[in-house]
Structures are given as C-alpha cells and as structure tokens.
Amino acid sequence: MKQIEVVAAIIRKGDEIFATQRGYGEWKDYWEAPGGKVEPGENPIQALRREIREELDTEINVDKYLTTIEWDYPAFHLTMHCYMCSLLSDSLHLNEHEAARWLKADELRNVNWLPADEALLPLLAAELLGIDRDLVCFVESAVIPRYKAFDKAHQEDHARSVISRALDLASHYPVNRNLAYAAAACHDLGLSADRKTHHLESGRIIREMKELRQWFSADEIETIAQAAEDHRASSDHAPRTLYGRIVAEADRLIEPEQIIRRTVQFGLSHYPKLEKEGHWQRTLAHLHEKYYYGGYLKLWIPESPNAVQLEALRQIIKDEVLLKKIFEKIWLEEH
What we know:
Layout: E1 2-13, E2 16-22, E3 31-32, E4 35-37, H1 44-56, E5 60-72, E6 76-87, E7 97-103, H2 115-118, H3 121-129, H4 133-143, H5 156-170, H6 177-186, H7 198-208, H8 218-229, H9 242-250, H10 256-270, H11 276-290, H12 306-318, H13 320-334
C-alpha cells in the first residue's frame, strides 16, 4: 500500500481549535486540521510552517508535539504527525479550503471530519479541557456512547454540553478538574435502568466502574457517585459536595426555547398516545412546576449564567400566548 507522511497543525486560541473544510478532491467538504505533506529535505516542523503559510497566509509557533495518527485509507496508509500550534498573527486567509471554524471542546463533533482527523478528537478535547488524556479517551470510548440509547433530550451532545459547562463552573473553584469531568460525564448513566431514580442508578454504576480506579481513589470515586446522585433538580436537599453543585448547575442549561423543546421531546418519547392538547397541558404544567416562581428548580452556583436565563424563561411562561406560540412551532418540528 502507498505510504503518505503528513503533518497537521492543531492551532489553538484560548479554548478553541481551528478546523478547515476541504474544497477539492475525493474528500471534498470533509473537515481537517490544516497541514500537508512533508517534502524531501524537510523536518516535520519546517513542513508544518511551510504548509500553513501556503494554506492560510499566516505564521505559527509550533508549541509541542501532540501525537502521530496511523490510518489506513482505501488507497494509501497515512502517517500524520500532529502538533499543537499558536498563531503569531491574527491574519488568516483560506487559499485552499472552502470554509473554516473555531471549535470549542463540546463543538468538535459538530463537523464531519476526515477519518484520521476524527481519531484525534479525544486528544483535542483533553487539551482544550485540561483533562488527563487517557481519562478523556476512556470517557469518549466507553461512557459517552452509552448516551446513544437514551431519550432524545439525553443524547451524546447533552453529555458533552454538561461536561463543558461543568468545567467552566469548576474554573471558579480550587477543584480537581479530572474529578469534575468524570462526574459530569457519568451523571446520567442511570437512565439505562430507570428514569425516575436514574440519579441513584448513576451513583451505583459509577461505584461499580472499575476503570475509574486508574485515575481516582476510592474516596474520589465516592465523590463522583454522590455528585451524580445529587444532580437532579427535583432533589429535596442541597448537593452534598461542591462537585455535586457544579454538576447539578451544569445539567440545568437554561435556554428558554431549548427547555421548552426538551419538555415536548420528553412528552413525545414517554407519552406517545397523548393527543396534542394533552402534550400542551403537560408542557404547561411541567414548566410551572419546575421553572416558574416557586418551582422546585434551584440554582446552586452563583457564577452560573443560568440566573438571567431563568428569569427570561419565567417571563415566557407568564405570557401564555407567547408560550403557546413557541409550543406550536416546536410541535410541528418534533411531532
């Protein structure tokens, strides 16, 4: 099989990495880290800097080696040396690619990557989140895929969003980020057993997950389990630990229309025989019970952006005509 050696620049700016979309060839429209072939007489660093000049009209600093990906494509074997890089200039120009995006950790899977580049995603997430790379690889391969079996409101994107928000909140406190990450990743695993008591089932699953012993002590695993048990908004007591408060708050992404959509999605999933008017009444009752003034939802972290969003949602609930209009729109899209 033909052998091709390339270099890839993982260009990072803050909590985002730069991705480019191919505009040519067999893999047109797929996304990749920019880079290209190593020419005769070049070392990988020289090749990387040259390729980025040619592709993006900019200069980079090569900060560190990340990994080498070995991948068999149908017509050739690819060896891809990957380096973390930073821009030396804010100027970027797409000379070969048709589009580009800056992606946060929870957005990495929002684009369709080339197969070899997709293999990089757990390591990119680890870099962006500041988490042990082996732990991230375990979570990406053995934890997050479990969410595929859950209801529409608790899929893989939900798990990754909770992880991202939990780590944002954790940055305000002197906590173990690996522990916060694991607690956020595992918080809903109990949905595999039972919806009503899934928080308790999550705790049980975490305590039985032997793989976590590679990174955490018995006491730390207990803390992760308690954080999962305490994450539900309906809990009648405050979370027992700071990690529990972080995960509970991260699980409560209050985006008004998304909250309403998830309420409708849950109803359609669990009450498929209910007529439209029944779903409207159920949606109305749930939003009042949980989110309206006096509802059981509690905010646990003062740094959370949820306070402003919760007030916005309450104003929509208060205006029943507006709420019904939003419900009708979501019903047409989801039903």
